[in-house]
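It is worth pausing here to work through a concrete case rather than discussing structure prediction in the abstract. The textbook approach is simple: state the sequence, then state the predicted structure, then interpret. We follow exactly that order.
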Amino acid sequence: MEEMSQESKDSFTQANTQADGRPIYEIGYHVVPTIEEANVASIVEKLRAELAKGDAEVISEGFPAKMVLAYTIERAATGKREKYRETYFGWIKFAVEREHIPAIENYLRSSKDILRHLLIETIREDISVAPRRAVFTSDRLEGETIKKPAATPEAKSEVSEEELDKSIDALVS
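Step two, the predicted structure:
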């Protein structure tokens, strides 16, 4: 596989950094479902406090909502295996210096309340809300509007009893 040219790397880095030079990151995380719904907010506040230690700017956030998982997640804890079929899923997009990422990763790994997490580098723009439209092109129909063919009404005519009987006999035989 070919490596990216230096120009491509520079444009990628510029697109993924804030005006002050800090890169943009996003955390997706699953909170264990054994926690009461009222206490989920305190877990999010702890995570936001950890981000604040690195002077992170929160760009956008999705508060954790309960969801059913596609498969069971198992985790070893206190000598037994815990199995989870549902969690609270949330995400936070933020800008922070690269030096603070290991501390954030360590916090996420050590927290007993967070079942799984994913930390990625991303871009500032919100691409999830952009509506997608299918665009079809054709040289053959350039500038023309496709019209529904007009239906021609069937001509009404009288049917005699004899013709009707013959048709029924043909269908039955």
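Step three, interpretation. The beta strands are 24-31, 57-77, 80-95, 114-122. The CA atoms of residues 66 and 159 lie 67 Å apart.
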